[in-house]
Amino acid sequence: VIQRRDSGAVNFNRSWSQYEDGFGFLSTEFWLGNEKLSHLTNQADYQLRVDIELSNGASFYTTYKYFRITDAWGQYQFIHIGEVESNAGTLISACPTNMLYGPCSCQATCEDPNGQSGCNSDCLGSEGCICPAGFVMQGSECINASECECFVAEANLVIPSGETSVNGDCTQRCSCMNNRLICEDYTCSTDAVCDVRNETRQCYCNEGYDGDGETCESLYTDCQAVKDAVHGDGVYTIMPTRWPESPFNVHCKMHGDEGWTVFQRRTDDDTSFHQNWTAYKDGFGNSRNLWLGNEKLYYLTNQNPTKLRVDITTLDGTSLYSEFTEFQIESEDTKYKMNKLGSRTSPSGYAGYYLSYNKGKPFSTYDQDNDACDTFNCAEKHRSGWWHSSAWCSTCYSYSYCYYFQYSSSCKSYCTYENLNGVYNGGNGEMIISYPNYYCNVQFVEMKIR
């Protein structure tokens, strides 16, 4: 006898451990205990007999030919019931082998052990015979997951078809292809770590390295490093020295044996450069029009001595460029001030000729006015984030030039001779200008460093 109820003297609303160990009194009401019952039903083939007496005195019994429950690891599940005999008018429904009665649910299969491909229903309606934990559906039957072709015993899991699993210490990688398990040795690079990220265990390259975890290569620090590795123009992932965040992509342009990192580009009016402080700090745009971001530019210009190159195409289609022997900006603490700009060399024309007037100036945007001009907001008037100057803000001009903006009914002024972040095909004072009144409404700009 494993259970008796005849008077209600013993409370059967008990905890897991009490049902596991057993409770009550053998002479009256009791539960023998799931652990004892598990050992009993697994040492030999057992039958189960249930005797019931109703409140009107009527009694009946039901006998099941086979009876077995799992152990504690399987949560003592009722998994084997066998054929039934009874003198009752209505029989208790019996479930097939390896199934138990319960709420219908979506079940795993060998091909889809995680239930990612829709619901594989194990029964109809709200209740019925279902597969217990540790079992999967195969047709209309339930089989132990260990019988699946892609079962990995060490990890006690079934790998879905077409997927891969790596073991706990990243020394073996197993794949399930066409319901066939393929396992191979797996080793992390010395520059990688075995880890679980986004629920996926594998080898991951350390910070400053890129690769699949088995092979990790040191990330480029800038486009000159890309050029030194004998690569051409393109988009590459870099990791500047001391950069505190994740690696990021940059456009690299190669001129001779020099690799230049593009931080600004203008080709059309698709992207507005009248952006706020945060946008200029983080960067914005696309492959045609972009600002890399002042924070990235700060780290790039402070890891090594840096040169600046400015390429423009004027309104009449003439291509010009200038290089500057030195270029550096400071951190956000000093508003990304342009603290270094060397002499202009290798010029073709006068591109960027007056950039020296922007040296020593902090960066300004319409929502962070750092130009020290009390008369107006230079970034707002020029419609651009830039190293604007207050040198001319107290001057009132009456005549018109392409780099002048109107700030009162009778006065015009300007904050920069070079406004390479201005409005594409914009009006006076807002347009992209370089070497003012000669290169107005510039049609192409590219600023880059090396």
From TrEMBL:
GO terms under cellular component: extracellular space
Chain ranges of the EGF-like domain: 179-217
Any Pfam family matching the protein: TILa
Sorted UniProt keywords: EGF-like domain
Lineage: Eukaryota, Metazoa, Echinodermata, Eleutherozoa, Echinozoa
Keyword Glycosyltransferase assigned: no
Family annotation (InterPro entries): EGF (IPR000742), Fibrinogen-like_C (IPR036056), Fibrinogen_a/b/g_C_1 (IPR014716), Fibrinogen_a/b/g_C_dom (IPR002181), Fibrinogen_C-term_domain (IPR050373), Ser_inhib-like_sf (IPR036084), TILa_dom (IPR025615)
Protein name: Ficolin-2
Domain Fibrinogen C-terminal: 1-89, 214-450
SUPFAM superfamilies found in the cross-reference section: Fibrinogen C-terminal domain-like, Serine protease inhibitors
Organism: Stichopus japonicus (Sea cucumber)
CDD domains named in the record: FReD, TIL
